[in-house]
Write a structure and sequence with these properties.
Elements (H helix, E strand, L loop, with lengths): L2 H9 L6 H12 L5 H14 L3 H12 L15 E5 L7 H11 L4 E5 L9 H6 L10 H11 L1 E5 L6 H11 L7 H14 L4 E8 L8 H17 L3 E8 L7 E2 L1 H12 L5 H17 L6 H13 L2 H12 L5 H4 L9 E6 L4 E6 L1 H11 L15 E4 L6 E2 L4 E7 L5 H11 E4 L9 E5 L1
Parallel strand pairs: 1-4, 2-3, 4-5
Antiparallel strand pairs: 5-13, 6-9, 7-11, 8-10, 8-12, 9-11
Helix pairs in contact: 1-3, 2-4, 2-8, 4-9, 4-10, 5-11, 5-12, 5-14, 9-10, 12-13, 16-17
The structure holds uracil and calcium ion (CA).
GO biological process, one term: pyrimidine nucleoside metabolic process
Subunit structure: Homodimer.
Function: Catalyzes phosphorolysis of the pyrimidine nucleosides uridine, thymidine and 2'-deoxyuridine with the formation of the corresponding pyrimidine base and ribose-1-phosphate.
Length: about 425
């Protein structure tokens, strides 16, 4: 077998065999096949696509390329949740304790943020002393005893995907449906969950800008999951504006706590109830979505969801005091109000621009090596559909270092589109794909 022939075959739109894919991906992961050949192959896939069988093979090959996590010592059906990436996506912080309070085991491994998107692990580290590095035994014991553990990724999960994703990132081959689907699902399969709930984002702030593409991505991932024996459901949700109001680590922790208290933003609350319902049904804790939703609402109303969050924090060494008194979380020294430049209605809030603005203030990493400031970020004051007057506050920037403040403010202003007509507000949840 020669990489050249495999590239050419795909370039001509022909179907690759599992053996060919395995040869290519394994050779690449081991460093025997160079970047330039995989780049050409990825570009051929970008234009010619992969069919269902090829996508399934690629997923399995990448899932098996490194460590796989064994969660079989945890009782019950382990349901993982994954978002295709968003800005100010605080859902995991809310969902993990909410679902665990309903007695579904939550064994969550999360990552750090990069670029304009945040990571759950960074967010949790804004809680003083919270420890995200658990041993395998601590992780499993916590889930068995408290129904919950959230830890940083350990082991070398799907290294083939890691290498290929980095290559796609610099060769304009990220936004290919079969490549995204196999990338995400390979990691989910390697991390050992029994069932998977996917939050597929659509809109200006997402990989998939259009509904049709998001739906195809969702269907592709659901098929992969179900074919490898992991019950998978996908919720297609809006990312035409950031979720909730807060974008930034400690700011989002505060927003998550408010949501667990029943006092959070409507969109964030609704998305958590929708995703949570799917998780409880997949986990066989509730018989249908209606029953699941009632259980989740009850956990918020009776305080058990917030209690579960505190239990997790304390179990992983964190300061529960900071949950009870939010002023003890990292606070930015300064803030700057950003004001509307004209009268009208908020038409759109480009999520990516808001994320970049928060990153410029120090909330996100420009490169993997950058250090971040957990206290800083952006809080939106107006969302799509709201009316504003010229000079009225649309957002607040929280910052410690004013080096890029001017750019961050301009970025934020460029995120907001204001027009004279009242827009139609997109639905938050479009569809559930099973
Ligand atoms: N997220 C991933 O993990 N992989 C992709 O290809 C795109 C988004
Ligand atoms: Ca948010």
């Amino acid at each position: 077998m020669r990489p050249y022939d495999i590239i050419k075959k795909k370039r001509e739109g022909k179907k690759l065999t599992e053996k060919e894919l395995d040869f290519l991906i394994e050779g690449y992961t081991k460093g025997e096949i160079p970047d330039y050949q995989l780049s050409a192959w990825a570009m051929a896939v970008f234009f010619q696509g992969l069919d269902e069988e090829e996508t399934a093979s690629l997923t399995e090959i990448m899932a098996q390329s490194g460590d796989t996590i064994d969660l079989s010592k945890i009782k019950g059906i382990k349901v993982d949740k994954h978002s295709t990436g968003g800005v100010g996506d605080t859902t995991t912080l809310v969902l993990a304790p909410l679902v665990a309070a309903c007695k579904a085991p939550v064994a969550k491994m999360s990552g750090r943020g990069l670029g304009h998107t945040g990571g759950t692990i960074d967010k949790l580290e804004s809680i003083p002393d919270f420890d995200v590095s658990l041993t395998q035994k601590e992780f499993i014991d916590s889930v068995n005893e408290q129904h919950i553990a959230v830890a940083g990724q350990t082991g070398d999960l799907a290294p083939a995907d890691k290498k290929l994703y980095a290559l796609r990132d610099v060769t304009a081959t990220v936004d290919s449906i079969p490549l995204i689907a196999s990338s995400i699902m390979s990691k989910k399969i390697a991390s050992g969950a029994d069932a998977i709930t996917l939050d597929v984002k659509v809109g200006s702030g997402a990989f998939m800008k259009e509904y049709e593409g998001a739906k195809e991505l969702a269907q592709t991932m659901v098929k992969i999951g179900n074919n490898v024996g992991r019950n998978t459901v996908a919720v297609i949700s809006d990312m035409d504006q950031p979720l909730g109001f807060a974008v930034g680590n400690a700011l989002e922790v505060k927003e998550a706590i408010k949501t667990l208290q029943g006092d959070g933003p409507t969109d964030l609350t609704e998305l958590c109830l929708t995703l949570g319902s799917q998780m409880l049904v997949l986990g066989e804790v509730a018989k249908d979505e209606k029953e699941a939703r009632a259980q989740l609402e009850e956990a918020i109303d009776d305080g058990s969801a917030l209690e579960k969050f505190k239990e997790m924090i304390s179990n992983q060494g964190g300061s529960v005091g900071a949950i009870e008194d939010l002023d003890l979380l990292p606070q930015a020294k300064n803030k700057l109000e950003v004001k509307a430049s004209t009268d009208g209605y908020i038409q759109r809030i480009k999520a990516e621009e808001v994320g970049i603005s928060a990153m410029m203030l120090g909330a996100g990493r420009e490169t993997k090596e950058s250090t971040i400031d957990l206290a800083v970020g952006v809080k939106l004051a107006k969302k799509v559909g709201d009316e504003v007057a010229k000079g009225e506050k649309i957002a607040t920037l929280y910052f410690n270092d004013d080096q890029q403040l001017k750019e961050a403010k301009e970025k934020l202003l460029s995120a907001y589109q204001i027009s004279s007509e009242k827009p139609e507000v997109a639905p938050l949840v479009y569809e559930v794909i099973k």
